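User: Fold this; tokens only.

Assistant: Input:
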Amino acid sequence: MSEISIIYQDDDLLVLDKPAGITVNRSDTTRNEETVQDWIERQIKDFGFQISDEDRETDFYKRSGIVHRIDKETSGILLVAKNRESFIELQRQFKERIVKKTYMALVHGKVVPSEGEINVPVGRLPWNRKKFGILAGGKPAITKYKVLSIMYLAMGKKEEQVTLLELSPLSGRTHQIRVHLKYFNHPIFSDFLYAGRKTSRDDRKILERVFLHANKISFMHPGTRLPVSFESPLPEELKKIIKMGQKD
């Protein structure tokens, strides 16, 4: 397993930095791989989790304190509660949109205008249960974006324009950012599910993972009720791609 690192911890929570390629929660489809949940459970006593007999039938226990999910292919910040009270409080904050999350993504093409909002419903595709898309019967989903920079990447014998975006999802649908950017006609670089087979195959010659990183989060601390925020720097493999696109 790639190295999971700890950004912050106290008696109430863990703030983790998850590498790309690791699934967050254990399920029937993760029997042959180690998840973030497995990693936490191996160290649950060392981390000082507070678990009572009454907790053993709760989502807090069943999910090993993991409050929310990020995609397997996405890297970045993940919140974990160390006790049931903190778990419930943080889930409430997610539900009421008190938690603010920010992502960075590199997408194909030049994004215009430089700021905007994508507001279209997202749902699981009936004909492909592993993928999501824009569906009339899907759940409401809103993603705000801001252009950070526009660059050119050498793709074989040609150069392609790409845009580095800051993204703020106002809802938490599965694959929301990836689906919204595909709908916007600016799929994420190296996104094998949504960028198209040929495009993602060419992308993966220089980057073997999706260029999507959960880099900032802010919320009210479940213990102190004071505002806190945390950041995760871009992983080295993503910094390398940005440097390739920057002109001297």
